[in-house]
Amino acid sequence: MAVQVRLATERDIEVVLKVLNKATTHLINKGINQWEYPWVASIIKADILEENVYVLEQNQCVIGTFSIKKVEKKYPIKDPNGNYLYRIALLPNLQGKSIGKVVINYVKKIALSNTIYLDCYYGNNKLRNFYMNCGLLYIGDYPEHDYYISVYKITPINNG
């Protein structure tokens, strides 16, 4: 069953919220408090209207989401040309089935011209290992509010 990636539209707000809330609950149940629950619809809608949000579809059903935007000044890495990959979420029953690689491979195509940064809670060893196994370059751990994030990047150079 192939997975397709497309830009999210306003019609996708509710299903994106559903995926994010299910993924967040799954993380919280595993003791990973990277995201706040529940997600706020107005934030997701604003990102969709700015064309930052993508959805993953399988059999015409949304099974995941991720977002890409320009690196913000508050991000620990300063790169005016860089992009930030964030809010990667899959439905919990589909995690661990290599669908995350679809996201990474899609983003690697974008990284042919720009460096893309992403991060995760530094205590999420499973996700950190996944990023390393996908060939992402580990940059370091940085403080974020009351925890640390591990930052990775995809560049045109390491995009093989």
TrEMBL record:
Any idea what this protein is called? N-acetyltransferase GCN5 protein
Q: Where is the N-acetyltransferase domain?
A: 3-158
Gene3D superfamilies in UniProt: 3.40.630.30
Provide a Gene Ontology MF annotation, just one.
Answer: acyltransferase activity, transferring groups other than amino-acyl groups
Residue ranges annotated as coiled coil are none
Write down the species.
Answer: Haloplasma contractile SSD-17B
Q: Which InterPro entries match?
A: Acyl_CoA_acyltransferase, GNAT_dom
